[in-house]
Amino acid sequence: MSFKQYFTSESVTEGHPDKVCDYISDSVLDAYISQDICSHVACEAMAKNNKVILAGEITSGGKVDLESVVRQAVRDIGYTDASEPFSAGTLQVVTYLTEQAQEINTAVGQTGASCPDLGAGDQGIMFGFATDETPELMPLPILLAHRLSLNLAEDRKSGRKTWLRPDGKTQVTVLYDNGRPVEVTHIIIATQHAKDIPQDKIQDYAVKTLLPQSLGTWFHPGIKLVVNSSGSFVQGGPSADCGLTGRKNVVDAYGGAVPHGGGALSGKDPSKVDRSAAYFCRYVARQAVLAGVAKKIEIQVAYTIGQPEPLAIGVKCFGTGDEKAAYDFVRRYSFRPAAIIEQLDLYRPIYKQTTNYGHFGRPGLPWER
């Protein structure tokens, strides 16, 4: 018997205020790790009007020019118009950074390859997921939403559409039949644009260029499309809205297709299992699907601060595989933080390349091997 249902996921462009802050936080992390791989970094950012506020805890032997890092990050994104409040050349950087609490530092232990007993940097719950419904082993709605956002950015940065501006959001609804995607039904595009650009020009770009190039074989003319439903989107980015690190957790992960443990990813060094264990759960889930253990698999892992072994590991196959066999497969892997860091080679300045368009499902990242 056929069972049909809809599922929707959203993405945001790199110029969205929250993503601006994620990228700043990851740029700070990379700057410290490039000087000292044993850096303990938990850096968060807030951006609004002409200010960026950095706050958090950093313990490192590195010496970083934070103002230069912030300005370059904002320049990378594309906020360079000096007539706007938020611009790389004119913004102000305020810092509220201290060293990591000694109690936490002692509980976690020293980082480095010579420390197999590195403890988890915090308590928490992480999830990993993979599904064979796409070649990338990702849920189709979030995968397509990210492609739309990425192509908005690429068309802007390349100069193909000079009227596009950095801020934007996308949303994709997919019809599933018996758990398999069969059709893209609805799409929402919200893109910041230059003044005096008529709505019909943006609509025409979305219909004739953005959707076909982003959706590929999933594109069809019957998709119900909404473009800039407010009618105009000239004011955007941190000039118009406050951004914070870690507010796009579902966008960063699987678009709501599976539960989320609650911990953000950006701005955290790999001793923080919020990040490293989430990456490793994705890595192991991919291996399970590729090995034919299940067509769809979810892995949950739980930690307590300072302990190297996870408290518990859970596995679900959604009826697509034998769960005992899947659990046995997953337990072949070590989920100790030091083992995760070694397996994925995480003591490298690779983090600002993870910030935008999903931390999962993109080639070139160690957990997507």
Give the overall form: flat
Helix proportion? 25-40%
**Residue share in β-strands:** 15-25%
Main sheet strand line-up = 1-6-7-8
Succession of helices and strands = EHEEHEHEHEEHEEHHEEHH
DSSP helical segment count: 9
Low-confidence stretches: none
CATH topology of the largest domain: GMP Synthetase, Chain A, domain 3
Output mean pLDDT: 94
Termini gap: 37 Å
Estimated radius of gyration: 21 Å
State the secondary-structure class.
alpha+beta
CATH architecture of the largest domain: 2-Layer Sandwich
How would you characterize the overall build of this protein?
The model has no long low-confidence stretch (mean pLDDT 94). The radius of gyration is 21 Å and the shape is flat. The two termini are 37 Å apart. It is of the alpha+beta class and 369 residues long. The strands form 3 sheets. The protein has a 4-stranded mixed beta sheet with strand order 1-6-7-8, covered by helices on one side. It has a 4-stranded mixed beta sheet with strand order 4-3-2-9, covered by helices on one side. A 3-stranded antiparallel beta sheet has the order 5-10-11. 30% of the residues lie in helices and 24% in strands. It has 3 domains: 17-101, GMP Synthetase, Chain A, domain 3; 124-134 and 244-354, GMP Synthetase, Chain A, domain 3 (2-Layer Sandwich), CATH 3.30.300.10; 148-242, GMP Synthetase, Chain A, domain 3 (2-Layer Sandwich). The chain contains 9 helices and 11 strands.
